[in-house]
Specification:
This protein is mainly beta. The protein is built from three helices and twelve strands.
């Protein structure tokens, strides 16, 4: 699916700012870019239109040799993270050009993709919002249990996808319809109102909707 222009960043945490009507708005601060264009792809040579961007300086010992050669073509140094952005039309950017937070404006609607906070191994009440077992007399140490998980003789097995206890969080998550509250280009910061996925210092991609 073709995407509009995007930028990579790091979730710094939360703050609040006061808007024109005097009200306080809670927002998430994202340090985004500058993200150099590492590679440009077009339909003629690659079969689709896209640009590859990078973020986060890296030491030479942390970058594999093939990637070092890939980064050298752009002449912008070595980076920890790269992402490819599909484009609807032919790319207008060139290798080595920087993407900054100035591609966004206050009031823009964006979607943010990141890795959600890991919760470890969780029970069915936290993971799936189960109601739990009765807490009345006669029920001992079963209050947060899932209850019966079996079936009748037919099919005689637990169906795949059954909601049970297990690993929760730490998965790719995209939140849509978030609002850009402010853009501070001199500090490479975007302030976004809404639920931005991931922990502090987590990698996120901010895309226009």
């Amino acid at each position: 699916m073709a995407e509009k222009m995007a930028i990579l960043g790091r979730k710094l945490g939360m703050t609040r700012i006061f808007v024109n009507d005097g009200s306080a708005v809670a927002c998430t601060v994202i340090e985004a870019g500058p993200c150099p264009v590492i590679q440009v792809k077009d339909a003629a040579s690659d079969g689709y239109n896209a640009v590859q961007i990078a973020f986060g300086p890296a030491k030479e010992k942390h970058v594999p040799k093939p990637m070092q050669g890939h980064f050298e073509k752009a002449g912008k140094g070595l980076f920890r993270n790269t992402r490819e952005i599909r484009l609807e039309g032919a790319p207008e950017m060139e290798v080595g050009q920087d993407l900054t937070v100035e591609i966004f404006n206050p009031g823009d609607k964006v979607k943010v993709t990141g890795t959600s906070i890991g919760k470890g191994f969780q029970g069915v009440m936290k993971r799936w919002n189960f109601g739990g077992m009765p807490a009345s007399h006669g029920h001992e140490k079963v209050h947060r249990s899932p209850g019966s998980i079996g079936n009748n003789t037919e099919p005689g097995k637990i169906i795949k996808g059954k909601k049970m206890a297990g690993h929760m969080g730490s998965e790719r998550t995209t939140v849509i319809n978030l609002e850009v509250v402010a853009v501070r280009a001199d500090e490479n910061l975007i302030l976004i109102k809404g639920a931005v996925p991931g922990p502090k210092n987590g990698l996120v991609m901010v895309r226009k909707q």
